[in-house]
Design brief:
With 528 residues, this protein is an alpha/beta fold. 36% of the residues lie in helices and 18% in strands. It has 18 helices and 21 strands. The strands form 5 sheets. Strands 6-5-9-10-4-11 form a 6-stranded parallel β-sheet. Strands 12-21-20-13-19 form a 5-stranded parallel β-sheet, sandwiched between helices. The radius of gyration is 24 Å and the shape is globular. The model is unreliable at 1-7 and 522-528 (pLDDT under 50).
């Protein structure tokens, strides 16, 4: 039995993995072993997908590892953790971060003053309010509509009553998620500073300006969408966080793990770690926002297992015509016509609004950027017939491969880097506009400036490697929401439950799920 090799990786990653399979034993003075080489290659490819470990697939592989100096502690580069194999360097980093988080949760706080009343909260929410007053770390989890944000608002109010003048900050991995958190808490009359984690930590490329020598001056930090936080980012955050600062981690463990290595929230789900967190870990179970069929299918995805095709059709086929989730099937060799028609209407609406938006009216610019959330198209793929690149090629033609200067007015544009000097974060989405007062054809990009009343106007040249954002990969859309979401879910022969759950829960009102057309005997296509 061979070690599992993830698919869909670029050829250069496969080549690098093969080179590591040969080089690692040689550099450590170990005799070549094809079985160990297979595992090294699989580890390298898995790391490119954000996974730190792989299962040891057979007794033969385990025996090969047992006899290899590459797996000998403390200096061997490989480490066995039960039936899982990972790089020893990542094992040490992961263990250090998880132990630091658990130590914070186990550190009791000295009570000071009275807690805010917990009326109107369910039992789990009351436990969360109590926990933030008792422990240095609180993990708050729950699916969509379970009241995570309203619970956080009550937790913050309780801390402010107990410790007036507390220095509180809100953060999230992406600009979109940070903006949503800021707006949600503002509705609860909590005006608090909010930023991306990279901006909070003063990102400087691969390093951060904030660290143990220059720590954050905070008494409480709330990190939302923690499912997107990878191991290196969490390590950097803990390095910069004073020991006496409370930390509240908020997220949904059913969401996709981060793109980067080390899914911290998933690692905290291990039974022994949940037990160590004790009362500092709270799961919200009551659903307060009924989102119809979307919520029902999302709940089933949370509780279900792969493969989806074994049970998902039984949920989708009975949905009534007026359900807020509709299932469409389409031939897999071309983009679905219904999807392209909807996106072209969205393009036209955005272009019209861009051309009529007064350039000197901040409120109109904010409303224009909010219109981006009318429709969102998601796919797990960048390439392929149902990938992001194919969608943009169909809608923009040859301009899709050129710079933003050449895209039509009204085209959504994706920022792919953390640009601290501009106040933009990786994942922020803006719009292509005509430059006010200039000749036709001159372009400017309009973005919202986090925490600022004025919009941000930049030249396309200031946004390196910008991409069109008429469609996004599911990973890129984490932290976003839209009124209407279209989800393309091609059959790639790989686990898709978390992908589909993450994509569908981006929808506030309507969702359309498109899957490849099945054999006529197996299904009857549903009309759009």
């Amino acid at each position: 039995m061979n070690a599992p090799q993830p698919t869909d990786q670029p050829a250069w990653i496969q080549a690098l993995a093969a080179a590591l399979g040969e080089a690692v034993p040689r550099l450590h003075g170990a005799n070549p072993d094809p079985l160990v080489g297979e595992l090294i290659e699989a580890l390298a490819v898995a790391l490119a997908e954000g996974q730190l470990e792989i299962p040891v697939p057979s007794a033969r592989h385990r025996q090969a590892l047992a006899g290899s100096p590459l797996c000998a502690a403390p200096h061997g580069p490989l480490a066995l953790d039960g039936d899982r194999l990972l790089w020893r360097r990542w094992q040490r980093q992961r263990d250090g971060v998880l132990q630091a988080l658990i130590a914070r949760a186990q550190r009791p706080l000295q009570p000071a003053g009275e807690a805010a009343p917990a009326d109107g909260l369910d039992r789990d929410q009351q436990r969360a309010v109590s926990a933030v007053l008792r422990y240095g770390l609180v993990l708050l989890e729950g699916g969509p509509g379970t009241g995570k944000t309203s619970t956080v608002a009550r937790m913050l109010a309780a801390v402010q009553v107990q410790q007036p003048g507390s220095r509180i900050h809100l953060a999230a991995p992406t600009g979109k998620a940070a903006a949503r958190l800021r707006a949600a808490l503002a509705n609860a009359n909590l005006q608090l500073p909010c930023s991306t984690l990279h901006r909070l930590l003063e990102s400087r490329g691969e390093r951060f300006g904030r660290n143990r020598d220059h720590p954050l001056a905070l008494d409480l930090l709330v990190v939302d969408e923690v499912s997107m936080v990878d191991l290196p980012l969490m390590e950097a955050l803990l390095d910069a966080l004073p020991q006496d600062c409370r930390l509240v981690l908020v997220g949904d463990a059913a969401q996709l793990p981060p793109v980067g290595p080390g899914p911290v929230l998933l690692d905290l789900q291990a039974p022994e770690r949940r037990q160590a967190l004790g009362d500092a870990a709270i799961g919200l179970r009551t659903t307060y926002r009924n989102n119809g069929a979307i919520a029902a299918v999302a709940a089933a995805l949370r509780a279900g297992h792969d493969p989806l095709e074994a049970w998902l059709p039984s949920l989708l086929e009975p949905l009534p015509a007026d359900a807020n989730l509709r299932w469409l099937e389409a031939p897999p060799r071309s983009l679905p016509a219904a999807l392209l028609e909807r996106l072209r209407r969205h393009q036209e609406q955005l272009e019209q609004r861009c051309r009529t938006c007064p350039p000197d009216d901040p409120a109109a610019a904010a409303a224009l950027l909010a219109a981006l959330e009318a429709c969102l198209v998601l796919t797990p793929l960048r390439r392929g017939r149902w990938g992001v690149e194919a969608i943009h090629q169909a809608l923009l033609g040859e301009a899709a491969s050129r710079s933003a200067q050449h895209w039509p007015v009204g085209t959504p544009v994706l920022c792919r880097h953390n640009l601290v000097e501009l106040g933009l974060a990786n994942g922020d989405v803006g719009l292509v506009m005509e430059q006010p007062g200039r000749s036709t054809g001159e372009r400017r990009l309009l973005f919202s400036a986090p925490g600022q009343p004025e919009p941000l106007w930049i030249h396309p040249a200031q946004l390196p490697d910008a991409e069109p954002a008429l469609a996004l990969t599911v990973h890129k859309a984490q932290g976003s929401e839209a009124d209407e979401v279209w989800v393309l879910m091609p059959d790639k022969g790989r686990p898709q439950r978390r992908l589909l759950y993450t994509a569908l829960t981006r929808a506030r009102q309507q969702a359309r799920l498109i899957t490849p057309l099945r054999a006529p005997a197996a299904s009857a296509s549903l009309a759009p």
